[in-house]
Amino acid sequence: MSIDAIHEVAIEDITVSKQNVRIENANKDLSELAASIKKHDLLQPVVLKGTHDNPPYELVAGQRRLLAHQRLGRKRIRSVFAGPLTNEQIMLRSLVENLQRVDLNHADTARAITVLYKKYGKNERKVQQETGLSIQRVRDYISIEAQASEKMKKKLARKKVSIADVKRAIRAAMGDMRKAEELLDLMEQYPLNKHQKKRVVEYGTNNQRAAAKKIVTEAMRPRVEASIIVSLPEKIRTALEKAVKNLSKEAEEIVTDVLQQWLDSQGFFK
């Protein structure tokens, strides 16, 4: 299965092979990939079935790279040709490429982002421009690298906890990192729902002397929750989904914060 030289191929001549193994999450973080390609160009060509100058072509590997180019409005993409392939060979090649691509864990990424942040004179916008990450994600990486303990970072690296939970534990502990570690241990131990996790922060910040166990116990205490169902226009719903991803917060938490700020600005809390 030899690889030919690199060619600039018209995107309109390319279709995604039905044997491509990536079905779900093809559009995940696509804006960040597009930003990276715009900044640094395409570092790894896509792989096509067939031979050059004999369109149409089937995409064997590089679906997200192709989608990112389409999002950027580009007409051509750097490609290599793998020659004539059977369906089984296409699927195998697609599978191997996806298995070989290992994402950096959060700790490694946070460390690298922080190094760049310092290199660029603590200019988070410069880091955002160079990496293609959202500004909020850059801030999260820098914040956790600076504030989280090694124990908390190891939990993130092992994907035992989420970025949002680490942020909640740090906020609820009000600067007491030993308490923050205890809170994170308890949040991992007990399957708290989103309402209870929110109350961990509320109770912790309002009761600074409370022990970690007390904070979680109070957060888990049964309460009557009032729910309001609102139909959102597609534009707002899409924007809210982006905010959830970039801010590492629950949708309800974001909406509550925004609504609280608006009500306060209008004087309804007086």
Write out key terms for the chains shown.
270 residues; alpha/beta; Arc Repressor Mutant; 3 domains; 13 helices
Strand pairing plus helix content: what structural class? Answer: alpha/beta
Strand order of the largest sheet: 1-5-3-4-2
> Count the strands?
5
Provide the succession of SSEs: EEHEEHEHHHHHHHHHHH
Q: What gap, in angstroms, lies between the N and C termini?
A: 72 Å
Describe the structure.
The protein is of the alpha/beta class. The protein folds into three domains: 7-100, Conserved hypothetical protein from pyrococcus furiosus pfu- 392566-001, ParB domain; 106-226, no CATH class; 227-270, Arc Repressor Mutant (Orthogonal Bundle). The chain is 56% helix and 8% strand. It is built from 13 helices and five strands. The protein has helices spanning 30-40, 63-71, 87-100, 106-119, 124-131, 135-147, 150-157, 163-173, 177-189, 194-206, 212-220, 234-247, 251-265; strands at residues 7-10, 14-16, 46-49, 57-61, 76-81. The chain has a five-stranded mixed beta sheet. A hairpin with a 7-residue loop joins β3 (46-49) and β4 (57-61). The radius of gyration is 23 Å and the shape is elongated. The mean pLDDT is 83.
